[in-house]
Specification:
This protein is an all-alpha fold and 166 residues long. It is 70% helix and 0% strand.
Length: 166
């Protein structure tokens, strides 16, 4: 039951992210989609991937999208509403359903579907963290410095220089 609720939440928020006209609302729906995906990973006992999803996608990418939208918002974006959907939208839905049917048929007829599933490896987030802090400290620090430099560069680009009075 929790899977079904999470899946419905993910699908609804993804559809809302694609169909809403306000960019901020689209970005917020994208954050809900990312959170739902993280919840699915956590339900599958993939703690590292779930927490990485939360940290990277919700904590970084989605917030970056929101800041980019809010910092670059101008009067051009607030123009009158223009119809963005084509009058032949049903062709796109037909192609999407045909593609889904082909992919589903290929997956279901695959020989890998008949093989027994292997027992998953038991790796905890604590073990991954211990490996990062013991054996991979230098790459972790380099990535941290690189991300910090990128954040400072993005802040400098986003800052607008004050116009000097004439």
């Amino acid at each position: 039951m929790p899977f079904i609720i999470t899946a419905i939440l993910i699908v609804l928020s993804a559809v809302a992210a694609m169909s809403l006209r306000n960019l901020v609302h689209c970005a917020l729906c994208l954050i809900v989609t990312f959170a739902g995906l993280a919840g699915l990973f956590l339900q599958l006992d993939a703690q590292f991937v779930g927490f990485a999803q939360i940290l990277v996608y919700i904590g970084a990418v989605a917030i970056l999208i929101l800041f980019a939208i809010l910092l670059t918002r101008s009067t051009e974006m607030r123009s009158s509403e223009v119809r963005t959907a084509s009058s032949s939208w049903w062709i796109g839905i037909g192609i999407a359903l045909l593609t889904f049917g082909c992919l589903a048929g290929a997956v279901l007829s695959s020989a890998a579907m008949n093989q027994p599933t292997a027992k998953p490896a038991v790796v905890t987030v604590k073990e991954i963290g211990a490996q990062l802090m013991n054996n991979y400290v230098l790459p972790l620090e380099v990535i941290g410095l690189l991300l910090t430099a990128a954040m400072i560069g993005a802040a400098l680009i986003a800052m607008r220089e004050k116009a000097e009075p004439k």
